[in-house]
Amino acid sequence: MIGEQTLEFVSNPDDYISGIAPARTFGFIEEVEMLRKSGLIRGGSLENAVVLTREGVLNPEGLRFSDEFCRHKVLDLMGDLALLGRPLLGHVVAERAGHAMHALLVSRLLQDRTAWTLATETEARVLSSPQAPSEVPAATL
User: Fold this and answer.
1) Active site residue 72
2) What sign has the CA pseudo-torsion 55, 57, 59, 60?
3) Under a CB-based contact definition with an 8 Å cutoff, are residues 115 and 140 in contact?
4) pLDDT of residue 76
5) Would you give the end-to-end CA distance of the chain in angstroms?
6) Torsion from C-alpha of 94, 98, 100, 103, nearest 10 degrees
7) Distance from the Cα of residue 14 to its chain's centroid
8) What are the residues facing 57 on neighbouring strands?
9) Disulfide check for 116: which of 25, 73, 81, 139 has CB 3.0–4.6 Å away?
10) Can you give the pLDDT at residue 11?
11) Dihedral angle computed from the Cα positions of residues 71, 74, 76 and 81, in that order, rounded to the nearest 10 degrees
12) Do 75 and 101 form a contact (C-beta atoms < 8 A)?
C-alpha cells in the first residue's frame, strides 16, 4: 500500500513549512481500535492522520503529497534529532527507521563525545553554506 518512497530534504524553514510539517502520521484501520483503547491516539482524526484500509486511503481527500508517508518519517526524524538540544549540521541517512532507532542515535551521539564537534555560530554558518568544505565531521552540533 505504501510502497517504496525516498526523499532527500535539505532543511530550511520555507521548505519545512510547505513540504514537511503538513505530512500526517499514518496507520492501518485494523490498529485504530487497539490504539484508542490503549489511550495512544486521543487527538487522532482524519485531519491529522492518514488511515489505510485494504482498499486504499480512508481519508476522503486522499494524501497531501504522493510521498506523504516518507515526508512524515522525515518529520519524525527531525523531531527526534531535536532531542540533541542543538541544531545538527550534517547528512543523515535513515532507512526504515523509526522513533526507537532515532532515540538510539541521539543517545549514542550524546554518550560518545568523540563522535561530534560543537561548532561556534561562525563555524556553523561556514559549514552550512553551499561552498562548505566537503569534509565535514560526522556530526557537528
Assistant:
1) no
2) negative
3) no
4) 97
5) 37
6) 50
7) 16
8) 52
9) 139
10) 87
11) -160
12) no
Task: Kindly list the averaged pLDDT for each block of 10 residues, start to end, along the chain of length 141.
Answer: 88 94 94 89 89 94 96 96 91 92 95 91 81 56 53
Q: Per DSSP, what are the bridge partners of residue 28?
A: 52
Q: Cβ distance 23 to 85 under 8 Å?
A: no
Q: For residue 33, give the amino acid letter.
A: E
Residue type, 63: L
User: Among residues 72, 91, 99, 102, which one is catalytic?
Assistant: 99
Q: What is the pLDDT of residue 18?
A: 97
Written as one letter, the residue type at 111 is Q
C-alpha cell at 46: 482524519
Can you read off the three cell numbers belonging to residue 92? 543523515
Distances (CA, A) of 134 to 8, 55, 116: 18, 46, 16
